[in-house]
Amino acid sequence: MPNTLNPLELIARRWQPSARLVERAALASVVMAVIIVVTGGAVRLTESGLGCSTWPQCTPGSLAPTAEMGIHGLIEFGNRLLTYVLCAFIGLFIVAARARAPRRRSLTRLGWAQFWIVMGNAVWGGIVVLTGLNPYLVAAHFLLTTALLTVAVLSWQRAKEGDDAPRDVVPRPVRQLAWLLVAATATLTLVGTAVTGSGPHAGDAREVHRIPLDWQEITQLHVDFVYIVVGLSVALWFALRAVKAPAAPRRAVLALFGSLAFQGVIGYTQYFMGLPEIVVGLHMLGSTLVWIAVLYLALSLRDRGPRPEDAPGTPAADEASATQAPQPVA
């Protein structure tokens, strides 16, 4: 019997995307992961966490919200619909990474990892609804989204580099300091979920179980880790200057300072204004920007060589050659 080609193989035989398109598809996945975090926060902050009372339907007997559910149903259902948009962008990345020549299995594996995280988190979100917004499950739901963002950033970075064995571009102690910064930022995020789980924004107007902690005390612990992250960032900046690091890591640490400054202003603003919803939403956006900047900085401290060029003779290579060819002077 003749071999049956799978759909991805068929696409690869008819479409050869450029390396730049694969990189842009990876970046689009990062952007969508950020949007999912922010819109998920909007669901909580507008008290729409139980706007859809069940899962996978929105309400018993209806996949979509009904008029009786009001604006909360629309907000929760809209956030669910964004999951399909996210899957579409991840699917584009998977297909583009699979179709381009030369083929890079590392990229397709990362794409599928994103897809399965989204599928798992969708089911987990359903469990969150069915358990009435259990705060521990809500925290895990957010952490799974952070895992998605992490893999998306790694995919974006891998799409921009080659497949050589990683080579340090700074001394090992500097890289270890960078990964210590990653660990401290991850702990900061984890403590932040405890602040949310014990704080005033329960996610629904009805009585919802909260984590039995004094949210102001846990907020102070959160602030303490902020100072640790800032201190490690400053130490890393001095270390990179001392070892005369390449330009990419030095730019990355400046981007981290910018995201930390934005997040610091938002954090103090929300504290002194009594946690207004819009400012808390901006704080969630800031948390994603800090995490992206920290990961990007750590990944910039090793080199894996140039990414493979588009295979000669493919439409992508021909297009790239035509773009780079000198234009005649009129």
Quick rundown:
The chain is mainly α and 330 residues long. The chain is built from ten helices and two strands. The chain has helices at residues 7-14, 19-45, 70-99, 105-130, 135-159, 172-198, 215-242, 247-272, 277-299, 315-324, and strands spanning 167-168, 302-303.
Structural commentary:
The chain is built from 10 helices and 2 strands; from the N terminus they run αααααβααααβα. The model is unreliable at 318-330 (pLDDT under 50). The chain has helices at residues 7-14, 19-45, 70-99, 105-130, 135-159, 172-198, 215-242, 247-272, 277-299, 315-324, and strands at 167-168, 302-303. Helix 6 (172-198) packs antiparallel against helix 7 (215-242) and helix 7 runs antiparallel to helix 8 (247-272). The chain has a two-stranded antiparallel ribbon with strand order 1-2. The longest helix has 30 residues, at 70-99. The termini are far apart. 70% of the residues lie in helices and 1% in strands. The chain is mainly alpha-helical and 330 residues long. It is flat and about 55 Å long.
Mean pLDDT across every amino acid position: 88
Specify the structural class.
Answer: mainly alpha
Strands side by side in the biggest sheet: 1-2
Distance between the termini: 59 Å
Annotation, overall tally of beta strands: 2
Q: How do the helices and strands follow one another from N- to C-terminus?
A: HHHHHEHHHHEH
How helix-rich are the residues, as a percent range?
55-70%
Largest sheet: 2 strands, antiparallel
| DSSP strand content | under 5%
Radius of gyration: 22 Å
- What form results from the Cα inertia axes? flat
Unreliable residue runs: 318-330
User: How many helices does DSSP assign?
Assistant: 10
